[in-house]
Amino acid sequence: MKLDNCSALITGASAGIGREFARQLATRARTLVLVARREQRLNELRDELRNRNAHLNVHVRVVDLCDKTQIDDLIEWLERDKINIDFLINNAGLGDYGSFATSDPERDDRIIQVNIAALTLLTHRLLPPMVAKKRGAILNVSSSAGFLPIPGMAVYAASKAYANSFSEALRAELRGTGVTVAALCPGPVHTEFGDVAMRPGGQPERGPEFVYVSVEKTARDALAAVEADRPLIIPGLAMKLGMFLVRITPMSILRLAWRLGAKRG
Ligand SMILES: NC(=O)c1ccc[n+]([C@@H]2O[C@H](COP(=O)([O-])OP(=O)(O)OC[C@H]3O[C@@H](n4cnc5c(N)ncnc54)[C@H](OP(=O)(O)O)[C@@H]3O)[C@@H](O)[C@H]2O)c1
Question: Is residue 154 part of a domain?
Fold first, then answer.
């Protein structure tokens, strides 16, 4: 779908990749709905985007995506104000670094609510008008973590496996309807993600710098893929190659690698 004059709703627009989507869409979209919990951040972004494009309609909605009633209120507000979203970016997400046995069940629940439940509910609510108009795009921000189980990020990786599987199935269901679905599966990107995922007193988890991709490139590659109706985006050559190898590696070999890693560590 061509993104010029689109009306996009971006979850997790107060930071990182979501904020960058808003910046890159600012000169092309007609309407942007910015969703997150930190109102001041969203207001600052709204002012910045309006300075860039005086014709852009920018709306700020403070929503905790863990709360289903707040999602219902968001949908009601869209309907009341007759804002027809034709581009949904399910970007908000969070992780947790550490073993599952020692995890905080409330944090596990927040990961499931934001990364899985809110993504599914928003898609379900915003999809019917897109299908009726035969025009729309859904971009689910998943992760390369969704391609394999990750010890030390068990719930997060599983939540992103859900996002990958859901995106592929929905894409197939919607073939021929005029509504496209894509999954963005970045490797490491410098954002606030690592700080949020780190437990109190924990060490920052950092991969080698060559696997990092900038927020700018991550968002740019994803928007280009949506316009070209490509199903899957893995920004950066190193991650593309790495994920190709991961995806063709049998689970028995991955288990062996974890066993050897555990012995050494
Ligand atoms: N950075 C990476 O290395 C990386 C790699 C692969 C995939 N990803 C994925 O990319 C997406 C964006 O992450 P990021 O890297 O940009 O992280 P980030 O800088 O921490 O941004 C996360 C965004 O999600 C929002 N959010 C979190 N919990 C929320 C809630 N309960 N309700 C509403 N909004 C909520 C945050 O807004 P508030 O705190 O203001 O609510 C923030 O805007 C996530 O889905 C993440 O899993 C990131």
Answer: yes
Which residues form ligand 1's pocket by a CB distance below 6 Å? Answer: 11-18, 36-38, 41, 63-66, 91-94, 114, 141, 143, 186, 188-189, 191-193, 196
CA–centroid distance, residue 191 to ligand 1 (Å): 8
Instruction: With CA atoms as reference, report the closest residue to 58 among 37, 86, 34.
Output: 34
Residue type, 214: S
Q: Number of folded domains in the chain? A: 1
The tens digit of pLDDT for each residue in 7-61 reads 999 999 999 999 999 999 999 999 999 999 999 999 999 999 999 999 999 999 9
In a domain, 107, yes or no: yes
Q: What CATH number did the domain enclosing 115 receive?
A: 3.40.50.720
Could you tell me the pTM of the whole model?
A: 0.97
Ligand 1 centroid to residue 250 C-alpha, Å:
30
Domain that holds residue 12: 7-239
Does the annotation count 156 as an active-site position?
yes
- The pLDDT tens digits of the residues spanning 156-170 come to 999 999 999 999 999
Q: Cβ(37)–Cβ(14) under 8 Å?
A: yes
Residue 256 located in a structural domain: no
Distance CA 115, CA 25 (A): 23
